[in-house]
Amino acid sequence: MTIAVTGATGQLGRLVVDRLKREVAPEDIVAFARDPAKAADLGVAVRAADYARPETLDAALAGVDTLLLISSSEVGQRVAQHLNVIEAAQRAGVERIAYTSLLRADTSPLALGEEHCRTEEALRASGIPHTLLRNGWYTENYTAAIPGALAAGAFVGSAGEGRIAAATREDYAEAAVAVLTGDGHAGRVYELAGDEAWTLADLAAEVSRQTGRDIPYRDLPEAEYAAALESAGLPAPFAKLLANSDVGASQGGLFDDGRQLSALIGRPTTSLRDSVRAALAG
User: Fold this and answer.
1) In this prediction, what percent of the chain has a pLDDT beyond 90?
2) CA-CA distances (angstroms) from residue 165 to 173, 188, 189?
3) Are 178 and 23 in contact (CB under 8 A)?
4) pTM of the prediction?
5) What is the pLDDT of residue 234?
6) Domain boundaries, the chain
7) pLDDT value, residue 266
């Protein structure tokens, strides 16, 4: 069985490939990358594949049995790009697809949900057996802000008291590998989230505890938070998207207590304490 991973040079893709090599022979793994040179260190076969260039996808998917479609990072273009991959998978005779969607994509208050829902619809229409990995938020989405919060003396956001059941990319990568290498996952929809739910005030308190400094959380209106992100150097559309996601978190969009992620990986998900410790050490 040949397993292919799209976006293999991305932060999640690299983790998936690395963990796959512990479960299956490296020669049975194919890494897809827009720039194959950036994947040369992965230790598996690499094929050029660009979501936005359909002419690259047929050759890339030749002989692939199982495909992990990691969602494109180009928000606003995802549906067309994902459809390119799905249609090429049909032509290539791919037997199964696992797709990294969004937690409760069909009811999510996050604007990100729409593109994921449309991709899920395309997968259903394709007739290819598939598994939806509806990933919640990555803990790293927030721990990456720790250096800035320490410099500014506070965390800022728009999540209010919303509880965020985040997990690390490593946790989600393990779940993807469990689905790619296991049986009985076709047709399943997994709502994946961390065992532990916390607010941004809880994150600030944990950082304060581990650093010995008083780092509070300041909640901002959505527009003000988006402006703050933009002033920090983020492109305006991405800043607005992140602020919208925080507001979605305040409405419960990033909370789930079903523990399907820890059930898939056979261990508890990584704690906030350990994630903060790793971020401070790194």
Assistant:
1) 94
2) 16, 21, 18
3) no
4) 0.96
5) 85
6) 3-134, 136-167+192-257+266-282
7) 98
Between the CA atoms of 96, 99, 103 and 104, what dihedral angle is there, to the nearest 10 degrees? -60
- Find tokens 């409405």 and name the residue: 251
Q: How would residue 282 be classed by pLDDT, with cut points 50, 70 and 90?
A: confident
The two tokens of residue 167 are 């997990």
Fold that domain 136-167+192-257+266-282 belongs to in CATH:
UDP-galactose 4-epimerase; domain 1 (3.90.25)
Q: What separation in angstroms does the CA of 225 have from each of 44, 108, 145, 154, 212?
A: 42, 21, 14, 13, 26
